[in-house]
């Protein structure tokens, strides 16, 4: 029989290891079921790395658990600020992390993130959202990605902000993902490289999009609506996320809904050009209520929305309704473009004789 690796000699039985990880009555979320699932992934990886044969791994009792190192990893993650609610999914999604030396491998990753501009308070969020990041080589993976992004105008501090918002970018292949995406945006859509910094910082996820599965399909759909590639490029500058929307699950249902409301193809194209935020508005949580309010309460027409599609980006309950009620009291019916965008002071000066409303009004959150 193959010699049992050193790591296996040190393992403890499942129950005692569970107690070493967590005090049941104080931190119950990190408990038996979760740890067992993580171990089922981790043990074969660790043992094979230490020389165990497939036969030994297959027949060994996998309820025998990890060594003291895994215990210190969990403690280290807690000290970084990873909440218990995230710690469970973090370990389940990347069980290999339990085998890393927290004072070397994980600490080196943490130090690198801090050096490129990630804030201390954001470290836990990055690890929780993308656990594999601690397994990447700094020299062979992270630095090359950073240097590639630097080549398209993204500075070191911007790199840190990008990682905070979308840490999975660090896992993208330069040759298979990042380069083709940048080339498509630059050569097909005609977006100059000097504009990439602003676009990527606003929506880092754009770099992770597949040219074939995402970009080409989405741009082709926009063209079917009557938009040119130049139009799409202009919209990307305004709202880069428009390239991330699913054609089947987002764009088609939304366009069909708006057509069902009575908008023509030409009107929809014009609305999108004027306000790409229309494409991010939820049908059920936004468009239904606001179009109904426009037509029934405000006695408006669809043409009013074509003229000012930004209407759907404002909160119905906190901006549109209270301001419209104030205008009604004054007997006024101005265009939406004159009374929705201004701040409270300007709105009051224009329509309320300089007296601001008691309650501040707000723009709607994205998608609402």
3D architecture notes:
It is a single chain. By secondary structure, the protein is mostly helical. The chain is built from 21 helices and no strands. It has helices at 6-9, 14-21, 32-49, 54-59, 68-80, 84-93, 102-115, 123-129, 138-151, 156-165, 174-188, 196-202, 211-224, 229-238, 247-261, 265-274, 283-296, 302-307, 316-330, 336-339, 344-351. The protein is globular.
Major beta-sheet overview: none
Indicate the structural class: mainly alpha
Helix content: 55-70%
Distance between the termini: 63 Å
Radius of gyration: 27 Å
Number of helices: 21
> Which parts are unreliable, with pLDDT below 50 for 5 consecutive residues or more?
1-32, 50-66
Mean pLDDT: 81
Q: Name the overall outline.
A: globular
Order of helices and strands: HHHHHHHHHHHHHHHHHHHHH
Number of strands: 0
Strand proportion: under 5%
Summarize the structure.
With about 375 residues, this protein is an all-alpha fold.
Q: Secondary structure elements and their pairing?
A:
Blueprint (H helix, E strand, L loop, with lengths): L5 H4 L4 H8 L10 H18 L4 H6 L8 H13 L3 H10 L8 H14 L7 H7 L8 H14 L4 H10 L8 H15 L7 H7 L8 H14 L4 H10 L8 H15 L3 H10 L8 H14 L5 H6 L8 H15 L5 H4 L4 H8 L17
Helix pairs in contact: 3-6
């Amino acid at each position: 029989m193959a010699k049992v690796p050193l790591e296996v000699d040190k393992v403890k039985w499942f129950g005692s290891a569970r107690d070493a990880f967590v005090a049941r009555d104080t931190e119950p979320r990190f408990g038996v079921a979760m740890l067992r699932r993580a171990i089922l992934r981790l043990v074969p990886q660790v043992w094979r790395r230490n020389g165990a044969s497939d036969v030994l791994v297959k027949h060994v009792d996998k309820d025998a658990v990890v060594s003291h190192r895994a215990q210190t990893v969990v403690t280290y993650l807690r000290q970084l600020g990873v909440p218990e609610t995230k710690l469970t999914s973090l370990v389940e999604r990347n069980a290999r992390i339990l085998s890393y030396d927290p004072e070397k491998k994980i600490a080196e990753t943490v130090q690198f993130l801090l050096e490129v501009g990630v804030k201390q308070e954001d470290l836990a969020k990055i690890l929780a959202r993308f656990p594999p990041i601690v397994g990447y080589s700094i020299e062979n993976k992270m630095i090359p990605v950073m240097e590639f992004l630097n080549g398209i105008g993204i500075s070191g501090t911007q790199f840190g902000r990008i990682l905070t918002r979308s840490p999975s970018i660090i896992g993208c292949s330069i040759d298979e993902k990042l380069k083709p995406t940048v080339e498509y945006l630059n050569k097909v859509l005609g977006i100059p490289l000097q504009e990439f910094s602003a676009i990527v910082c606003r929506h880092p996820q754009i770099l992770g999009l597949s040219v074939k599965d995402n970009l080409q399909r989405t741009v082709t759909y926009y063209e079917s609506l009557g938009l040119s590639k130049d139009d799409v490029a202009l919209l990307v500058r305004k709202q880069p996320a428009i390239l991330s929307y699913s054609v089947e699950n987002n764009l088609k249902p939304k366009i069909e809904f708006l057509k069902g409301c009575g908008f023509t193809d030409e009107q929809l194209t014009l609305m999108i050009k004027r306000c790409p935020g229309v494409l991010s508005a939820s049908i059920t949580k936004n468009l239904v209520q606001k179009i109904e309010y426009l037509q029934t309460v405000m006695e408006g027409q669809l043409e009013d929305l074509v003229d000012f599609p930004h209407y759907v980006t404002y909160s119905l309950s906190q901006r549109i309704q209270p301001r419209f009620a104030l205008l009604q009291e004054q007997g006024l019916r101005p265009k939406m473009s004159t009374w929705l965008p201004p701040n409270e002071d300007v709105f009051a000066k224009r329509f309320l004789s300089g007296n601001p409303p008691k309650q501040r009004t707000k723009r709607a959150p994205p998608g609402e």
